[in-house]
Specification:
The structure holds 2 protein chains of 2 kinds.
Chain A: E1 3-5, E2 10-14, E3 19-21, E4 24-26, E5 32-38, E6 44-50, E7 56-58, E8 64-68, E9 73-78, E10 87-96, E11 99-102, E12 106-111
Parallel strand pairs in A: 2-12
Antiparallel strand pairs in A: 1-4, 3-9, 5-6, 5-10, 7-8, 8-9, 10-11, 10-12
Chain B: E1 4-7, E2 10-13, E3 19-25, E4 30-38, E5 44-51, E6 57-58, E7 67-73, E8 76-81, E9 90-98, E10 106-107, E11 111-115
Classes of the chains: A mainly beta, B mainly beta.
């Protein structure tokens, strides 16, 4: 079955520490891949996306993600987390123009 | 990036009344718009997909007669929650695709609906 999995419901990191949020997908073909961030009561902001080409994608706010076909993964990383990064993060996949599915989300808490 | 505006951001209505939520693409033509529902601390659940000028395609389990979607123009889609009940209280988010980069969806700010 087609699915998007974010294994970690909640992650807590200290400010300045590195971060990695996991995302795995299960689709027949390589989908379009996205990471979004959502602050409480707000819509979604695109951090980065992968369609093809270089498997290491740079996004906004210092985030990057690496597509690994062999692992069907698209993990999000940041070398040094800031307190303002505390939010909900969603991995999403798009197979075609009319289908976009989201993972369950990972809530990030940043300790001072 | 392209801008999608959703209005209102918050609405409180009485049980049994109808509420309309608007989703506008401000600087591009949105050939396809999507409506999502998000429960507290949950992911986004796709409710329906609408293409301009045609009927919306609803996901399984979503009541067409309760959640009326209209996509009358390339810049506006509306979601009307009819005969709202407290269980319809939720966060509703729209997104739109179109313009030069059709592969990316742009999201509205969301609407917090509370039915009392």
């Amino acid at each position: 079955a087609q699915s998007v999995t974010q294994p970690d419901i909640h992650i807590t990191v200290s400010e300045g520490a590195s971060l990695e949020l996991r995302c795995n997908y299960s689709y027949g073909a390589t989908p379009y891949l996205f990471w979004y961030v959502q602050s409480p009561g707000q819509g979604l902001q695109l951090l980065l996306k992968y369609f093809s080409g270089d498997t290491l994608v740079q996004g906004i706010k210092g985030f990057e993600a690496e597509f690994k076909r062999s692992q069907s993964s698209f993990n999000l990383r940041k070398p040094s987390v800031h307190w303002s990064d505390a939010a909900e993060y969603f991995c999403a996949v798009g197979l075609n123009n009319n289908d976009m599915r989201f993972g369950a989300g990972t809530r990030l808490t940043v300790k001072p | 990036g392209a801008v999608v505006s959703q209005h209102p951001s918050r609405v409180i209505c009485k049980s049994g009344t109808s509420v309309k939520i608007e989703c506008r693409s401000l600087d591009f033509q949105a050939t396809t718009m999507f409506w999502y529902r998000q429960f507290p601390k949950k992911s986004l659940m796709l409710m329906a997909t609408s293409n301009e000028g045609s009927k919306a395609t609803y996901e399984q389990g979503v009541e067409k007669d309760k959640f009326l979607i209209n996509h009358a123009s390339l810049t506006l889609s509306t979601l009307t929650v009819t005969s709202a009940h407290p269980e319809d209280s939720s966060f509703y988010i729209c997104s739109a695709r179109g313009g030069q980069d059709y592969t990316e969806a742009f999201f509205g700010q969301g609407t917090r609906l509370t039915v009392v």
